[in-house]
Amino acid sequence: MSERPKPELTACAADEDLRGPYDKETADAVAAILRRIGESPEREGLQRTPQRVARALEYMTRGYRQDVDEILNGALFTLEYDEMVIVKDIDFYSLCEHHMLPFFGKCHIAYLPSRHVIGLSKLPKIVDAFSRRLQIQERLTCQIAETIQKKIKPKGVAVVIEAQHLCMMMRGCEKQNAWAITSSLLGRFRRDARTRAEFLELIRPGRGRSGT
Ligand code: ZN
User: Fold this and answer.
1) Based on the domain organization, do 86 and 135 belong to the same domain?
2) Exactly one of 51, 135, 137, 143 is catalytic; which is it?
3) Do 55 and 79 have their domain in common?
4) What is the pLDDT of residue 82?
5) Mean pLDDT, range 139-166, rounded to an integer
6) CA gap 45, 50 in Å, rounded
7) Distance 165 CA to ligand 1 centre (A)
8) Is 12 a catalytic residue?
């Protein structure tokens, strides 16, 4: 029997996380947590974990340091276009504020312009700015809708978020296949059942992609 070469251990791209500065206080707190759960932060695999976690946390909460006005700077246009604008299936990752565990899924955004439109690529950036914080799904949904409402005063805004919460999957009720769905409907999407139905039809899974 020939001896197989040992596979190299390069799990989770750990070295990527070792570049750049990190917050020492956060790293110290992580080391304390490691001790409290019965681990040893000195053992080889954990030696640099506190600083990795500190950097990862900073990245995952970078929305606190983002300014929506700056994101939208130069991306608001005046245009006579009054059909529904939809960007669907925007991936997002957030942390629930109750457990600091990830929740993640898809965000769908629609609005009915009233003289102003937002550059399409900016909508995912708005989602990012609000999701990269400690959040609850309901607030995240409303903040996205209200920001669009405030910035371009459209005739209506609709935001739907479908998400899975690790705090429900790994602990608590341990429901692996539950999706939480939240929506925020403003203006015509709230008032007019036909507009709402058109939006819900367009965000149905599989709609709007090639071949459908
Ligand atoms: Zn939670």
Assistant:
1) yes
2) 137
3) no
4) 83
5) 97
6) 11
7) 7
8) no
Tokens of 16: 């990527």
Q: How far is the CA of 6 from the centre of ligand 1 (A)?
A: 39
Do 21 and 74 lie in one domain? The reply is no
Global confidence as pTM: 0.88
* Range from 56-60, 78-82, 93-97, 102-106 carrying the lowest mean pLDDT: 78-82
pLDDT of amino acid 207: 79
Residues 6+ apart with CB under 8 A from 76: 116, 117, 118, 119, 151, 152
Catalytic residue among 51, 96, 107, 143: 96
Q: What is the CATH number of the domain that holds 14?
A: 1.10.286.10
Question: Is the predicted pLDDT of residue 211 greater than 50, yes or no?
Answer: no
Interacting residues of 193 by C-beta distance below 8 A, sequence separation 6+: none
164 within some domain: yes
Q: Are residues 27 and 84 in the same domain?
A: no
Average per-residue pLDDT in the chain? 91
